[in-house]
Design a protein that fits this description.
The chain has one domain: Phosphoglycerate mutase-like (Rossmann fold, 3-Layer(aba) Sandwich), CATH 3.40.50.1240. The chain has four helices and six strands, in the order E-H-E-H-E-H-E-H-E-E. The chain has helices at 32-46, 63-75, 126-143, 155-165, and strands at 3-10, 54-59, 80-82, 148-153, 184-190, 193-200.
């Protein structure tokens, strides 16, 4: 049997002083802390005493994912590939502050988008996110067969993909996602059969005080 591991990585902290849900908007880059998170993960994966067998680093086209992938690719002497299927989930509230107070939820015109949390009605359906993410995973498995690949994506697509492969319901409480900034959700295959799902936070020491936005 041939063992292949695909690591689904969430990007590092983003510079977002306005606190908006930036979604797929261009121009949102890593903060200094986010850059350090990316370097920490690169060092973890390439550590001489436990160097991983990474032969492909592929990222969402969004700037924050590309910047997160760069030090990892450099550590393994690779170029960063781009796969649009790894992009953030589409969201009606993109570019807005999401909340009651001075946020978008105080405006009645947005309320119809909240009618069905199971789909969800405010953005790209969970099933569509899983479909495209698994297609990206399968493509990476072919490229890295017998080795390892790192795919840099975003919290929600990574999390619903994990829920799907673990045969859990896709609808969930966003506050309970196990997918922190710069975390690694690792899918291990023997030939074409998924045999294990792992989770690791190499940059956990940088998480206290880090800024997060739902769906980032």
């Amino acid at each position: 049997m041939v063992a292949t591991t695909v690591h689904l990585m969430r990007h590092g902290e983003v510079h977002n002083p306005e606190g908006v849900l930036y979604g797929r908007l261009p121009g949102y880059h890593l903060s200094e802390r986010g850059q350090e998170m990316a370097r920490v993960v690169a060092a973890h994966l390439a550590a001489p005493d436990r160097r991983r067998d990474v032969v492909a680093v592929i990222a969402s086209p969004l700037q924050r994912a590309q910047e997160t992938a760069a030090p990892i690719a450099e550590a393994f002497g690779l170029e960063v590939g781009t796969d649009p299927r790894l992009i953030e989930a589409g969201n009606h509230f993109e570019g807005m502050k999401f909340g009651v107070g001075d946020g978008s939820l105080r405006h009645p015109q947005h309320w119809p988008y909240l009618r069905n949390p199971f789909r969800p009605s405010w953005g790209e359906p969970y099933t569509e996110q899983v479909e495209r993410m698994l297609a990206a995973v399968n493509a990476a498995r072919e490229v890295a067969r017998g080795h390892e690949a790192v795919l840099v994506s975003h919290q929600l697509p990574v999390w619903v993909t994990r829920l799907a492969v673990e045969h859990r319901r896709l609808w969930h409480d966003p506050r309970k996602r196990q997918c922190s900034l710069a975390s690694l959700t690792s899918l291990t295959f023997e030939d074409d059969r998924l045999v294990g799902v792992g989770y690791l936070e190499p940059a956990a020491h940088l998480l206290p005080g880090a800024a997060t936005v739902a769906g980032a």
